Amino acid sequence: MKTKDMVFAALFAAFLGVLGMIPPIPLGFIPVPITVQTLGVMLAGCFLGKKTGTLSIILFIVIVALGLPLLSGGRGGLAVLVSPTAGYLLSWPVAAFCIGYMTEKVWSRLKTWKVIAINVVFGVLLISLIGAPVMALITHTSVWAGLVGAIAFLPGDCIKAIIAAVIAVQLKGISPIEEKVHNS
Prior knowledge:
By secondary structure, this protein is mainly α.
């Protein structure tokens, strides 16, 4: 891995931490709040690519597990890995990898609508399909109830998917993916 990739991974981990400073929006019917940090996850995948994007999210999760209060609402430590939000948090590296993988596949013919579709499938739906059942398991509720509760995240997550796609396409020229495509 190049130094440039490590710097990008560290910068995006820091960016996720900054997004964690934006207060969460608690929902009364589900123990998982609405946060802006999934925007960072989607952006890591579609801007950095599968390898560096995934590494940045893993780095962030390790830093949070070590106790830094970088999750929205000032949460951190090992307790978050067994809380109702654990499934959502642990789905982030998977989502970043899938978004990065698919974005790299369409990079030569990149269009904003394609990145939006990739972000919706892997940044919105995949995170909910992993996070909601884990939340249901931890809270001793039915998986169906968890999935129905996760519907509340869809409108905001779709907006974040659009924002991440627009940013990634606008910054295409400086993306590490662009460099990889030209060097291959």
